[in-house]
């Protein structure tokens, strides 16, 4: 199925409002939707978390009486459960919505370890939540029929329903992947220099390609992986994890984060600022995109990182936009919490691998490293 064909099905059903957080399974559909909805008739509003997207969708319904579409990876169901059950559910405000849910970790289909548990429980979770579901299909007519059926349920019963997307449903689109502003240099080159400056201090790295690149850099340089906690799932939680570690040790600890992940759980910034860990350095590499899912834009373009971080209590904030500023970074005496925001270009190697150690092995090595230092 072409992504443009799904867009046309939405138009035919007058499903003209789309919001959510991207998944790579949907990239060839999302690449066919204009960023602001101009030209294709479908208004597209980017959300920073799946729960937020449910709220935006509810507002659209309140203002128009129409049914919104909310897209998410199945991992995002966790973020969406509260507003689904306490806002849209039939026993509360009773609001219609069609959820486009991708099925990462589908049983019998190999996937990354962070998707295994949610893949096992996705269908059962929808049943528990009382959300009727159908499956999208490569056959356009079957997908159209499934959406029509779900649309009828959503409008007649005024409740959320779900269309489930398995891997490989879409053909690649001829339209280019969305690109963001150019930055300092590519993220992997930035990480090379950062890891050299950080040395043997513990690092908590965000989900996606950042953790993958850190693992490969360490391997290439014959360095140990034990000082790195690679947050392969739980998007947005790297800062919280690092804060929990920082409050238990006097040693410096570094967060290497991304703009999309920080936006998903921005409240953690206020928590860090409140507890004032002097040993914490929060590095945010901002490329303005969800690169792991196909390069869709985040909303970081309008963010004033320096003002934001200082307003919540970060003691020192550095904004890095040039190679000279990057080279001059000094973490010797952070006097934290210290924030460092580095502008990055979008792009990664096509042969980028994945960590060869299991999450449990990574955890055990990191715990041993931290506890031996203390």
From TrEMBL:
Q: Where is the Thiamine pyrophosphate enzyme TPP-binding domain?
A: 222-299
* Thiamine pyrophosphate enzyme N-terminal TPP-binding domain boundaries: 6-110
Pfam families, from UniProt?
TPP_enzyme_C (PF02775), TPP_enzyme_N (PF02776)
The lineage's top-level taxon is: Bacteria
CDD domains the record matches: TPP_PYR_POX_like
Protein's UniProt keywords contain rRNA processing: no
Among the GO molecular function terms of this UniProt record, one is: thiamine pyrophosphate binding
Q: Which NCBIfam families match?
A: Ppyr-DeCO2ase
Protein's name according to its UniProt entry: Phosphonopyruvate decarboxylase
């Amino acid at each position: 199925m072409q992504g443009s064909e799904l867009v046309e099905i939405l138009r035919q059903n007058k499903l003209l409002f789309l919001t959510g957080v991207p998944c790579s399974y949907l990239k060839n559909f999302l690449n066919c939707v204009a960023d602001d909805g101009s030209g294709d008739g479908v208004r597209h509003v980017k959300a920073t978390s799946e729960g937020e997207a449910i709220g935006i969708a509810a507002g659209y319904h309140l203002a128009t009486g129409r049914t919104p579409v909310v897209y998410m990876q199945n991992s995002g169901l966790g973020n969406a459960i509260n507003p689904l059950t306490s806002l849209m559910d039939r026993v509360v405000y009773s609001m219609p919505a069609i959820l486009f849910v991708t099925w990462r970790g589908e049983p019998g289909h190999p996937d990354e370890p962070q998707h295994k548990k949610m893949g096992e429980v996705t269908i059962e979770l929808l049943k528990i939540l009382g959300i009727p579901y159908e499956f999208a299909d490569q056959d356009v007519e079957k997908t159209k029929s499934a959406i029509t059926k779900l649309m009828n349920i959503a409008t007649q019963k005024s409740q959320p329903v779900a269309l489930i997307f398995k891997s490989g449903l879409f053909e690649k689109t001829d339209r280019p992947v969305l690109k963001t502003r150019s930055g300092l240099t590519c993220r992997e080159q930035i990480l090379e220099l950062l890891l050299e400056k950080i040395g043997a201090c513990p690092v908590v790295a965000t989900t996606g390609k950042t953790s993958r690149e850190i693992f490969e850099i360490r391997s290439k340089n014959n360095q140990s992986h034990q000082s790195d906690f690679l947050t392969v799932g739980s998007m947005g939680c790297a800062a919280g994890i690092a804060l929990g570690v920082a409050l238990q040790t006097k040693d410096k600890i570094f967060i290497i984060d991304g703009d999309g992940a920080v936006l998903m759980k921005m409240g953690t910034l206020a928590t860090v600022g409140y507890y004032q860990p002097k040993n914490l350095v929060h590095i945010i590499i901002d490329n303005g995109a969800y690169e792991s899912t196909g390069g869709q834009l985040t909303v970081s373009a309008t963010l004033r990182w320096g003002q934001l971080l200082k307003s919540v209590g970060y003691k020192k904030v550095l904004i890095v936009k040039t190679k000279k500023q990057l080279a001059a970074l000094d973490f010797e005496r952070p006097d934290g919490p210290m924030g460092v925001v580095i502008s990055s270009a979008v792009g990664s190697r096509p042969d980028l691998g994945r960590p060869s150690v299991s999450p449990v092995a990574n955890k055990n090595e990191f715990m041993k490293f931290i506890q031996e230092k203390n």
